[in-house]
Structure formats: structure tokens, C-alpha cells
Amino acid sequence: MKILVILSRVPYPLEKGDKLRAFNQIRELSKKHQIILFALNDGKLDNTAIEELKKYCVAISVMPLPKQTVIKNLARSFFSGLPMQVGYFYFQKAQNKIDELIRKHNPDHIYCQLIRTAEYVKTYPQFRKTLDYMDVFSKGIERRKNTDPFYMKPLLSLEYKRLLKYEQRVFSWFTNKTIISSQDRELIPHPNKAEIKVIPNGVDTEFFKPIVRKKSYELLFNGNMNYPPNVESVEYLVDKVMPFVWSKMPTVKLLISGATPNSKVMALESDKVFISGWVDDVRENYAKCKILVAPMQISIGLQNKLLEAMAMQIPCVTSVLANNALGAKHNEQIMVADKPEQYALHIIELLQNEAKAKQIALNGYNFALNNFNWKKTTALLEGLMLKK
């Protein structure tokens, strides 16, 4: 089967969740099928990206998305009624290239990741197509309406309304629809949302596995540190949770790890809070820490940081919302909280009770290995594509 994969970002390096999901799905699908990749690129292209992707793709097209084009795209989308999340990535030059790829390769299936890319294939009803909603953008914007500065609220309200309509409209354009968790599926504003197939993320257990390092920090938060849900969560961790922890254990150190920390994140740095930024091998940061804490405040997506930490036998403390997508057992495979005091109590217990921490880590490890395997999860996606 020839599969045309259309992405809003080049899926390498793997510093963002959408890239991680796309890369591993492409890698698994390429074992049996020919992958034709089209990806937009609004930043500097990593020197190793194309060579890495050539291992799995028979053809690769990367379309630059410079700032001046983005500005035009956003202006056009504002007046056309498209959500900015879609308009940002849609322009005629890219449409022409995708049209050319479809004519040239005549794919058996078209796979679009995120609603950002749906617009490019709406005029191709004759092709079997799959849309990976992955996350629910409207829910993320709804959350930001309550947390962003007041001057952003009118624009966010407009974007929210447009996203709700668009998430419903694109449903009929695709043969199959997928999403990352059942929790997210319930947020899709379509009467037939039950038709959306849950395709969880996996974790590369050959890469993420237990390694022994000196524990330089007690706590870790890892992720793309310019992504609003991560920024909001790490602010909550430092400002709300850690004062309770430090009142009982004043020497506890927190490492904030991940690409592109923004000014809000950098402002959290102190003699007890350390910020690493991007690291070439994130496993080193995981291994240096005793506990991963992910107090996610928004219920979209499945947190890869939890899967990666579990695969490395690191005990995790997370929110009820994040664990709803994960499905681990509280106090057995993971520790779950929804208030600052609860997070602090779990953290202190795991730091003071080494046997409990080891048991949570081992149970979490087995849970991740048994339930979140890229081969198994991508097989679910492949099954949808092959179904006639």
C-alpha cells in the first residue's frame, strides 16, 4: 500500500508530541508499506532530519513556511473564517505540491495528522483518507480563555468558536478518524464521535529503558517548554506544589527539562529549580532524577513524558486529567493528585519511602510495556487503513 502522509511539522527531531507520534507511526508502517511524506516546516530544518526520514520514506517533500507566509496565511484565515490553527498552515503553494504528489503517486491511502492539514485533502473524496485528530484543539483554546491575559480573550473566543465548527465539519471528509485517548474523543463536537478510533501513543522501549545514573535531582518535569500546557503545569508545580514540599524537605531539587523554555519558564529558575533546555539525550535527565512530576492542568492528549519515565522505571506523580488518558492504577502503578497538597504528600512519601517508590516504578514499567507499544498501536491504525 502506498500511503501519503501529510504533516504540519517535519517529524524529526522528536522534541514535540506530534512529531514523536508521526515518526513512530511512519517507522512502523514503513515495514510493510511505501510512505510518501509531505511536511511543512516553519523553523530551521534539522541537519539530520532528511537522512533519518529516508530510512522509512520512499519520497520526502518538505515545504518551507517562512514568517511572511505565516502572516499572510493568518490574515487570510481571519477573513475567510478558518481557525488560525488551520489557516497558519494552509497556503496555495503547499496545496499545489500536495496535488502534484497525489497525481504522481496515486496513493492507496492519505493520512493527515491534526486538523491543521485537513484542508489540503477536502477536494479528494475519491481517496480513502484517515484524519488523526490526535488532540482536541478547541479544548486547549477554551482553557486558555481562562488563563491568558484579558486582551487575548476576544481573539481566543473567536478561535474557540471556529475550532468547534471545524472539528465537526472535517469529520465527514475522512473515511477514518483517530484520536489519542477516549477522554479526548468525548470532547469532539460531533454526534457520531463514537466512530473515532482510539489509537494510543506508544513508547520506544528499546530506547527508553532503565539506566543507572547518580541521582542529582529529586524531581523532574520534562517536555516542550514553550508549549502552553507544559508552561502552565510547571508554573503550578513550582508556585503551588513545591512550597508544601520544601516546608517538609527544604533541600529537594527540581529539574525542568525540555526544548525552548520560554521567559515564564526561565523566571522559575532558582537555587532549587534548575532548567536544562534541550539535551541531546533526554534519557540522561530522566535517569538523574528520582521522580517525574507531571501536574497537567488540561485534559488533552496522552503525556509521552509519563510513558517514557515509566519505561525507565521512574515513579510518576500526575494529575487526574492526565491519568484519565493513561489509565494507570493510582497508588499501584502511578500516584495521582488534583490539589497542591496531594501532590506534595505523594512526592514526600515516594522520597521518604524507597520501597514504595521502587514498587510504583516497577509496576509502572510493566504497565507501560504491556499497554503502550508502538508496534501494537500502529497495527490498529494499519487495520483501519486496510479495511475496505
Question: Shape from CA axes?
Answer: globular
Largest sheet: 7 strands, parallel
Name given to the CATH architecture of the largest domain:
3-Layer(aba) Sandwich
The helical percent reads 40-55%
| SSE string | EHEHEHHHEEHHEHEEHEHEHEHEHEHHH
CATH homologous superfamily placement of the largest domain: Glycogen Phosphorylase B
Proportion in β-strands? 15-25%
State the secondary-structure class. alpha/beta
Name of the level-1 CATH class of the largest domain: Alpha Beta
Set down the secondary structure blueprint.
Layout: E1 2-7, H1 17-29, E2 34-41, H2 49-54, E3 59-64, H3 67-80, H4 84-87, H5 92-105, E4 109-113, E5 129-134, H6 137-147, H7 153-169, E6 176-179, H8 182-185, E7 197-198, E8 217-222, H9 228-248, E9 254-257, H10 263-266, E10 273-277, H11 282-287, E11 289-294, H12 304-311, E12 316-319, H13 320-326, E13 335-337, H14 340-352, H15 354-371, H16 374-386
Parallel strand pairs: 1-2, 1-4, 2-3, 4-5, 5-6, 6-7, 8-9, 8-11, 9-10, 11-12, 12-13
Helix pairs in contact: 1-16, 6-7, 9-14, 12-15, 14-15
